[in-house]
Amino acid sequence: MAKNTFSEGRGPSQRQLRVGEVIRRTLSEVLMRDELHDPDLSRLSITVGEVRVTPDLSIATAFVLPLGGDKQEEAISILASHKGELRRIIGRKAKLKHAPDLRFRIDTTFDQMDATRRMLSEDRVQADVAKPDSEEDGATS
Questions:
Q1: Cα separation of 139 and 124, whole Å?
Q2: Between vectors from CA 90 to CA 86 and to CA 93, what angle results, nearest 5°?
Q3: Per residue in 113-138, is it b (16+ CB within 10 Å) or e — as a string?
Q4: pTM of the predicted model, to two decimals?
């Protein structure tokens, strides 16, 4: 009998990445075309940054962010209330045999990029980057 090759230390498989991207694109299209007919959701412009799928493809976690970054909790709650309908639409449009259960989380990627950019622009980091490699090693020519 084959042993399960998935482990916590490894990254996602090609299949997980492919299914996640298909779900991301489909979810983005559904939200962009306002296929849910919800006036509260229509007011929000939501970006779907990434979708991560579990190894057994049973759960898909969509990382979303409303345009401008405000009303995040409202967007999550609205999407969560429509997850059954979204699951059905995604299963049909993406032609998945079994559509995964959808979960929604706030995408913090942009905040992390801003924090990294601020850190890299600090004077002490700039001074460290400006040093030649030979000074760091303490080697003399």
A1: 22
A2: 135
A3: eeeeeeeeeeeeeeeeeeeeeeeeee
A4: 0.70
Burial class (CB in 10 A: 0-12, 13-18, 19+), 71: middle
Mean pLDDT of 15-41: 87
Both structure tokens of 16 = 């997980």
Task: Let me know: does 26 contact 90? Beta carbons within 8 Å.
Answer: yes
Give the tokens for residue 124.
């002490």
Q: Which CA distances in Å does 3 have to 6, 7, 112?
A: 9, 11, 37
Q: What percent of the chain has pLDDT over 90?
A: 12
Cα separation of 14 and 113, whole Å?
Answer: 26
The 10s digit of each residue's pLDDT in 35-90 is: 888 888 778 888 888 899 999 888 999 998 888 767 788 888 888 898 888 899 88
